[in-house]
Design a protein that fits this description.
468 residues; alpha/beta; Rossmann fold; pyruvate-formate lyase- activating enzyme; 2 domains; seven-stranded mixed β-sheet; five-stranded mixed β-sheet; binds cobalamin; binds iron/sulfur cluster
């Protein structure tokens, strides 16, 4: 997002336990300043800390950048410990360690406990092989230690918000913002989803502790916008309701945004007014596909009628809906794009986002498509915004034109424009204007990138051969 940045919650989360154990920790947010790779490496080399810990938001697409940064750092500093973590390295640890001798350790899974154990061991020169949840080299061979247990109580670890000092994080149109989590994980079985597998079990923070933390962030840091990182925050409606009530009791004027399952919105129809009262302004709903057969195949466990009902319910409560639609789950023909558009128009969401299916090696979906050919071998572009799987019936340039056509029709249809200009709530008009401003730039940028920059591979590369 141009000039808008959110703090990296993953790094702040591992920072908390380290600081509390007495370590000196500093945050270098390269994304915030849009630093080039050399600049990032130079800053690390200048500082020369004992260890660097790198994380990324778009995990798969950003890993090549981490590899490049750490190579330069290693050339200039032989002693620094290089530690990485996050979802992509958790599953691709073997090839990362094989191809990147400069990376010393990969923290697999949740980072808080493992990183603390690792740093404590390194400091006291104790053995690191016994630490669970780690990938490392033993006698030069990449190995992974047994899985670490899930954190049982998410309230046990403090997030180091103080590391945000010096960064003016904003979102939603220059409003002070953070990313926060009520829960981790998701109990649903969608075959393509890498996140539910990563967090393993759905767990949540206590309603009171999160409400208190939000109040502290609002009062001490002036935070207005809270972007929920949860995969599915309302998995347990009782706990979720308790949280909404605890937050409402604080009587803060906040803007909350997040993602949620459409059927959970329908389930919570009776207390959606609490969502609104707590401050929820927009939910992203993963609609994924118009075809019930495809939804069944990917085990979305949702239904078309619930998707529509959820959008209507959100509208009734003056909460914006953003429908995300994924291209490539079926073997689309022109007719399928027409049907998708028709369905989206009938759902009438406030915003849409079209994405491309991007299989993660560690998901069941990968097994379904591993023999398919890919058209994009540049990992940096595996970011859901580029088509990666070859389509049987349509050329990639036709696919992108259909995608862009659907987006433009959806965003400029009369009902969307009416809401954009005349919605009765000024704050929702402002939110929609903000999204439209970003969307306009991205729309042109993606077309430009596709036709003038992105190089599609001419070779026949199968998915299973691309990911070793
Ligand atoms: C907020 C968010 C964003 C924000 C990021 C803000 C920021 N500065 O971090 C924004 C909107 C900018 C964003 C952008 C993108 N995102 Co995003 N994002 C998220 C989201 C919803 C939350 C991230 C988060 O804070 N999680 C909570 C923290 C606590 O978890 P965590 O980061 O995984 O960290 C824990 C562990 O992984 C580990 N860990 C992580 N890093 C490290 C590092 C070290 C050294 C150690 C020891 C441990 C460790 O410890 C942490 C604590 O347990 C996640 C989904 C999710 N729920 O995680 C998607 C997610 C990370 N994003 C994703 C994607 C694809 C993108 C984009 C590519 C989308 C796009 N096309 O624009 C871009 C990429 C931007 C970029 N520059 O790279 C995907 C990545 C998929 C993948 N496997 O590669 C995810 C998983 C969403 C999904 N459902 O698939 N994103
Ligand atoms: S509902 Fe969402 S988060 Fe949960 S498994 Fe499905 S895609 Fe993943």
């Amino acid at each position: 997002m141009p000039n808008e940045h959110l703090p990296p919650l993953g790094l702040l989360s591992i920072g908390g336990p380290l600081i509390d154990a007495g370590h000196e920790v500093e945050l270098l947010d390269a994304d915030f300043y849009n630093y080039k790779i050399n600049v990032i490496a130079d800053k690390i080399i200048d500082k020369s800390p004992d260890a660097i810990m790198l994380g990324h938001s778009g995990s798969t697409s950003a890993q090549p950048i981490i590899n490049e940064i750490t190579k330069i750092v290693r050339q200039n500093n032989k002693h620094i410990k290089i530690i990485i973590g996050g979802v992509f390295p958790t599953y691709h640890w073997n090839e990362i360690l094989e191809d990147n001798p400069q990376i010393d350790f990969i923290v697999c899974g949740e980072g808080e406990e493992t990183v603390l154990n690792l740093v404590t061991a390194l400091e006291s020169k104790a053995s690191v092989e016994i630490i669970k949840g780690l990938a490392l080299r033993i006698n030069g061979v990449p190995l992974k230690t047994p899985l670490a247990e899930n954190i049982k109580n998410l309230d046990d670890f403090r997030i180091a918000w103080e590391l945000m000092k010096g960064y003016n994080y904003t979102y939603w149109g220059k409003r002070k913002a953070v990313v926060i989590q009520f829960s981790r994980g998701c109990p649903y079985p969608c075959t393509y989803c890498g996140q539910s597998l990563f967090w393993k079990k759905w767990r949540h923070r206590s309603a009171k502790s999160l409400a208190n933390e939000i109040e502290m962030l609002h009062k001490e840091y002036g935070i207005i916008v809270f972007n929920f990182a949860d995969e599915n925050p309302s998995s347990n409606p009782k706990a979720w309701k308790e949280f909404l009530e605890a937050l409402i009791e604080k009587n803060l004027n906040l803007i909350l945004v997040g993602s949620i399952r459409a059927d959970n919105i329908v389930r919570d129809a009776d207390f959606l007014h609490l969502y609104k009262k707590a401050g929820f302004e927009r939910f992203l709903l993963g609609i994924e596909n118009y075809d019930e057969v495809v939804l069944e195949k990917i085990k979305k466990a949702g239904t078309v009628s619930k998707d529509k009902e959820a959008i209507q319910l959100l509208r009734k409560h003056n909460i914006l809906s953003m429908a995300t639609y994924v291209v490539g789950f079926g073997e689309e023909k022109s007719r399928d794009f027409y049907n998708s558009l028709k369905q989206l128009l009938s759902y009438d969401p406030d915003q849409v986002q079209l994405l491309y299916v991007t299989p993660h090696k560690w998901t069941p979906y990968f097994e379904d498509v591993k023999d398919k050919e890919i058209i994009l071998t540049d990992q940096k572009k595996w970011d859901y915004k580029h088509q990666v799987i070859k389509t049987q019936f349509l050329k990639p340039w036709v696919v992108i034109l259909y995608v862009k056509l659907i987006e433009i029709i959806m965003q400029t249809r009369p009902s969307a424009l009416m809401r954009l200009f005349f919605h009765k709530e000024a704050r929702l008009r402002s939110a929609m204007r903000w999204y439209t401003r970003i969307g306009r730039r991205v729309w042109f940028w993606e077309l430009y990138q596709f036709f003038f920059v992105t190089k599609l591979t001419k070779e026949k590369v199968k998915m299973k051969d691309f990911w070793k």
